[in-house]
Structures are given as C-alpha cells and as structure tokens.
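Fill in residues.
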C-alpha cells in the first residue's frame, strides 16, 4: 500500500485525465470507491458515462491539452494530485501526433497544475519498455515515453515548479478480466486488434503472469500515489530517482 487511505487527513481532491480509456476506467473506479477521495475533477474531450450521477465526480470538457486557462484552473483549485492516463497507441497516429500526446500534453499539464498545491503529485502512466537511457534497439514508444518521464523529472528540479512531485508508472499488459465493474465502460478494440488482443492477453496471463497489470490493482496504486506525500519511493521495482515504478514495483505496492 502506498498510502493509508483510512487516515482522515487524507481526504482530498484529485484530477484524472484519460478517464474513458482502459487504464483510466480502472483509476476512475478506484477514485469513485475510495472514501478518502472527496472530489474528482475529470478533464475530458467528451462526456464520461461512468462518472454520470456520482456527486463527487465533476467532468470538465476540455479539448486543448497543451493549454489550461484560468477558467479551467479555477475549477481545479484545491486538487492535491493528478493521474495522467491519457494516451494513444503508437500504431494509431503519426509520430508527430504520438510525440505531442505522449510528451507535450502531460508536460504542459504538469506545469499548469504544479501551482494547485504543495506538494502536487503528478502520476504519469507510462509503460513497460520505456527507458530513461534509450539505445539503438529501444522501440520508438519506449524512447518517447522515457523522454516524457525524463522531462517530468527535469521539470520538478526547476525552482518555479518545485512543488511538483512526479511519478511514472510503467504497466505491463493491462488486464481488466477480474474487474467486472468497469467492463461496460472500457473501450472496445476495433479492427485487427479486436481479433489479436484477447488471445495475446490470454497467453500472457498463462506464460508471463508477472507481466500482467490487473486494472483493479493498477487503478488503486495510481490513485494512492496521487494521494500520497509525494516523497521518493524505494524497494524492488523502483528506479529513476525513486519516482519510476515498474510493473513489478506496482504489483509489490499493490500487495500482489
């Protein structure tokens, strides 16, 4: 467990970006069911059906994730942390668009949100394969996600953003199978992915269970990181100045 969520002083307001995706759905369910999370501000391009009717969830329709005007920041006042689960598959967009979504969007948000609280925890959903030291054989997504991780760490060392406490968590094969509460809300795979993804995930569950990231546990750890004290972590599966958590590290924090 990252933080004792039963502690009364831990009641707080969190921000979630990417709530309609697979990881984001798991995070949103965790936030909605965590009694210590008293307010959730969801930044989204479109309505978030899973949040509808929940009194502590507030959806802010937002289309430009590189710009955060006062009208948006005023609605985020008092937030203590953010889970950034917005992402896209490298195969679905051009390299320029992938770079913008993967790096430029979260960096712009971290800059804007850092003034909301001190400390302000910014939890970036990265991925296994990301690296801070890319080599000739590093896949493109690993290089770009690693670049985003590195930029967040650099940003937090600047005096202007000293309140920023970033974490980057690298999930493996994200698996919602045992998380029935989100099944109706998660995006359905289309085209070739609809045929390839389910059997591939089934194989990983069998031959490489350590590489699986169950959405229930992943969502809880991401939420707890945003709720925590922002201090550096240590132990198995933690690197990057105590702010980068591998899938093994996530499972350890989840008690798996």
């Amino acid at each position: 467990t990252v933080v004792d969520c039963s502690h009364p002083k831990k009641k707080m307001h969190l921000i979630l970006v990417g709530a309609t995706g697979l990881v984001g759905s798991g995070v949103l369910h965790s936030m909605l069911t965590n009694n210590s999370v008293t307010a959730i501000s969801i930044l989204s391009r479109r309505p978030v059906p899973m949040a509808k009717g929940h009194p502590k969830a507030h959806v802010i329709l937002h289309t430009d994730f590189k710009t955060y005007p006062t009208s948006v920041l005023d609605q985020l006042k008092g937030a203590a942390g953010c889970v950034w689960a917005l992402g896209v598959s490298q195969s679905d967009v051009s390299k320029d668009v992938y770079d913008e979504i993967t790096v430029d969007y979260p960096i712009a948000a971290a800059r804007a949100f850092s003034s909301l609280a001190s400390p302000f925890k910014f939890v970036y959903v990265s991925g296994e394969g990301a690296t801070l030291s890319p080599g000739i054989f590093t896949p493109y997504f690993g290089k770009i996600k690693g670049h985003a991780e590195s930029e967040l760490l650099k940003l937090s060392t600047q005096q202007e953003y000293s309140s920023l406490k970033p974490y980057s968590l690298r999930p493996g094969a994200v698996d919602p199978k045992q998380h029935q509460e989100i099944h109706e809300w998660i995006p359905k795979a289309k085209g070739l992915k609809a045929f390839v993804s389910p059997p591939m995930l089934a194989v990983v569950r069998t031959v490489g269970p350590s590489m699986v990231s169950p959405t229930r546990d992943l969502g809880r750890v991401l939420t707890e990181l945003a709720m925590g004290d922002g201090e550096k972590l240590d132990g198995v599966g933690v690197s990057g100045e105590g702010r980068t958590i591998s899938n093994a590290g996530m499972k350890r924090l989840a008690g798996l």
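The chain has a mean pLDDT of 90.
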